[in-house]
Amino acid sequence: MKLYTRSGDKGQTSIIGGKRDKDDIRIEAYGTCDELNAFVGRAAALLNEEMFSDIKSELITIQHELFDCGSDLSTVKKDATFKVDESMITFLEERMDDYTEEAPPLQRFILPGGTSAASELHVCRTVARRAERLTAKLMKEEAIHEEVFKYLNRLSDYFFAAARVVNYRLEIADVEYERSAIVFHTSKKQ
């Protein structure tokens, strides 16, 4: 099997149910999910298996789910069956709740960073936000499977929570943005 098809040499690509220009917003949205998937793989590779088996396993699951997002976003077929569902969103919310409880309370904005793995998770967060923005733009122009948008919205928050837990478990403090007011109010006891 050859890796190249030459079918996109004129600036178009095939999607499920049609063809689009390679710079079409739909292609940008699912292409950004693919880009995010690569960053998630790199983040997973940076995590120590013993200390972070939970997060590492979740990142592998997220990689599969990002393929699902890409598949759903690349579909314009009217009678399509979609892959992203509410259970995926609920899982992210549950994990975020757990990580928020594990990490120290947060009151101010923090700088992305700390350990290499946490830094990579912050990169994932920002790329997820870009995928979300592109998907929001696409939703203004065409119908999409809206669970994908909800998933991407939760996913960026998941990466934030996971990055904080990675730093916490490695005893690296988050660095607060020095000109930040108190923006997060918490009832969690210190």
Automatic annotation (TrEMBL):
Q: Which NCBIfam families match?
A: PduO_Nterm
Determine the domain of life of the protein's source: Bacteria
Its EC number(s): 2.5.1.17
KW RNA-binding (keyword) present: no
Quaternary structure and partners = Homotrimer.
Q: According to its UniProt record, which reaction does this protein catalyse?
A: 2 cob(II)yrinate a,c diamide + reduced [electron-transfer flavoprotein] + 2 ATP = 2 adenosylcob(III)yrinate a,c-diamide + 2 triphosphate + oxidized [electron-transfer flavoprotein] + 3 H(+); 2 cob(II)alamin + reduced [electron-transfer flavoprotein] + 2 ATP = 2 adenosylcob(III)alamin + 2 triphosphate + oxidized [electron-transfer flavoprotein] + 3 H(+)
Cobalamin adenosyltransferase-like domain ranges (all copies): 3-166
The text of the family note is: Belongs to the Cob(I)alamin adenosyltransferase family.
The entry's protein name is Corrinoid adenosyltransferase
Gene Ontology molecular functions: ATP binding; corrinoid adenosyltransferase activity
User: What pathway does the UniProt record associate with this protein?
Assistant: Cofactor biosynthesis; adenosylcobalamin biosynthesis; adenosylcobalamin from cob(II)yrinate a,c-diamide: step 2/7
Please provide the Gene Ontology terms (biological process) for this protein. Answer: cobalamin biosynthetic process
Q: Give the UniProt keywords, A-Z.
A: ATP-binding, Cobalamin biosynthesis, Nucleotide-binding, Transferase
* First-level EC class: transferase
Q: Does the keyword ATP-binding apply?
A: yes
Which Pfam family is one of this chain's hits? Cob_adeno_trans
